[in-house]
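Quick entry between incubations.
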Amino acid sequence: MIQRPRGTRDFGPEEMEVRRHFEDMMRQEAVLHGFREIATPIFEHTELFTLKSGPGVVEEIYAFQDKGGREICLRPELTASVVRFFVSDLATLPRPLKMFYFGQCFRYERPQAGRYREFFQFGAEIIGNATPETDAEAIGLAAAILERTGLKDYRIRVGHIGILREMLANAGVAGDKALPILQKLDKKIYPEAEELMAQAGVGPKAAQDIISTTQVTGPISVLDSRQGPASDYIRQVCDILLAMGFGNVSVDLGVVRGLAYYTGMVFEVDAPKLGAEKQICGGGSYSLSELFGGEKVFSTGFAIGFDRTLLALQTEGVQCGKVGITAFVVPVGDSVRTKAFEIVSELRRSGLSADVDLMRRGVGKSLKYAATVPSKFAVIVGEKELESSSVTLRDMNSGEQTLVKMEDLVKELKR
Amino acid sequence: MIQRPRGTRDFGPEEMEVRRHFEDMMRQEAVLHGFREIATPIFEHTELFTLKSGPGVVEEIYAFQDKGGREICLRPELTASVVRFFVSDLATLPRPLKMFYFGQCFRYERPQAGRYREFFQFGAEIIGNATPETDAEAIGLAAAILERTGLKDYRIRVGHIGILREMLANAGVAGDKALPILQKLDKKIYPEAEELMAQAGVGPKAAQDIISTTQVTGPISVLDSRQGPASDYIRQVCDILLAMGFGNVSVDLGVVRGLAYYTGMVFEVDAPKLGAEKQICGGGSYSLSELFGGEKVFSTGFAIGFDRTLLALQTEGVQCGKVGITAFVVPVGDSVRTKAFEIVSELRRSGLSADVDLMRRGVGKSLKYAATVPSKFAVIVGEKELESSSVTLRDMNSGEQTLVKMEDLVKELKR
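Done. Structure below.
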């Protein structure tokens, strides 16, 4: 037996119904917010991701050479692709560009609960400006999507990369040199962060200040004692989110998202019920296009981990009903098989989901199969009933059977 | 500037609206027919495809080694994956299993008009039986999908691989030995087919008979003079299709689909307006699961080339309207920016697609941007009007402006 590749999944009919249900929901919500869908290729030149995330990223992705010797890889995320697309084709469109995407991403790592080698991301990017409005609009879409799915227990934490960057710069660590420290702070590995800061010449008092700043979390009032543009900025973002109806936002200056291209506001969303792997969304404002040969443009974006969000919904018991079909057409004997296809086609043309026996089974077996689909009704087509242009309509729940004129069948099924 | 990989495409907002429109349409039609969606990974063990199509297929696909030394590849098609999934997980489900899928496939070949290295397929498989009903149901779904897209000029050609197989067997060429000949006949390279037949010991008369059989095309009546189970079978399939309302089916015994696993009925759909690359759909009945370690099960399936179908629709001028949004909210000055977000959120919660200025533009520039989206209405939020709980509603087409009470705004926009 040939296995599917390690870390990948197949999705059967029931699981796929759930997935499409929530995928469509996210898409609809994004469209309501004036975002428009785009799509980019499954594989990219590896350079796209090494430019964005550094050469180390190659270790974590599916990178290979194609037959023409090109270094290509399966995309590990979609922001880089969206920005590449923006630089090459979309830079002349009116701004802001509000775009969203949904698709597979890939990473080569040890598969574990909730982490797959092929996983699905829903994401959005607003390209064109750096205003609190833009940032609030991005966070607001993420929140509206989660609200719409029915997820109850989720927490939005907003921070600002500028606060720590400024403190580090004041202590003499500016630009790229701050990055390794920020990465340790992001992962809350404080002893290593302290060591790196000491090596970079940050005094113990300043280092302690920086670490305690990453521990500032709570309602917006935790910023009351803080001055400066970054704190003001977060306050503005939270005010707009409140006006949008999202009061469940807290401040967390420990949200660092240790990547060089973030420029200001950063945010994460947790579903606490998921335990250690609780983060279901992350994003922030960034500037990437100049790295790919375009002009510098501020942007804000986020990605929702689709698989983990589904896991969170499952944990909360959020369900979506099994779809099934309206009618299953059962011919009684070979003489009426062709007639059964005429009937099933008429039902489908009327917009009713309908199926028909393909296995040449008897009536009993066909009804049994129809119940597994499940089908709400069975339409039993017998030679004798056809003489009076009628069929037998069976309610698959109650088992009740009635004789129905062919001309009334669609009407009866649509009731 | 970093380029997208050769042979791949990015899809911008307008193109993506068209693609989703037709993708959803195909999905809905399949659901109406009682098919259910499944999904499988983007990459598979390469063995899956060499087992199905022979070792030569490696030359045409994106095959590579992952970091664990596994031979994997980007899927070149989806039937093999579906059957693998069936064998490992779905074999115990009630039959027939009616499944469909939509997704990217990949092949490494020279890109040309209408042929991409990353392309999209919609496909369906019915697993569980080999009856004319099953085959008609599969062809019927393909036809119903194309009909629903609005495509006018398409031709369904139905053949039966058994007819040529039987003739070759009678001439002493049975089983796998017939395959190279069938492949030449499929591509209508008659001199080479004749040469192979001569080498295999087929006499010139029999060879001529076989070649002229592949040229039998036309309405179902072209089979009137032919006896035998395969001809009877095609007649039954066409009868059922006629009952389903698909009379535009012709017989073409030259449809061979030169692959070993086809067992009986084979069919293709052309969009003649596309010229040389006119085939938009192909399929037939097959038996593959035993090759992947499962029991032998007869199946019928097809795949529609999504990209080429869109090209055919475009050639016929079939359109889908630009979507746009209902309302764009324009704050007049900074003091009402937050209020504008409150309003846009209320509209979105009422199910109206709405957007808001994120760029801190003046009213004139915002209206200009709103026109490009396009938005049907602008909701202009001014301090003075807010005093009487009102906003100005501007019809973006006529330019007409009216003062509307906040409480009536949703109602007005939904008119």
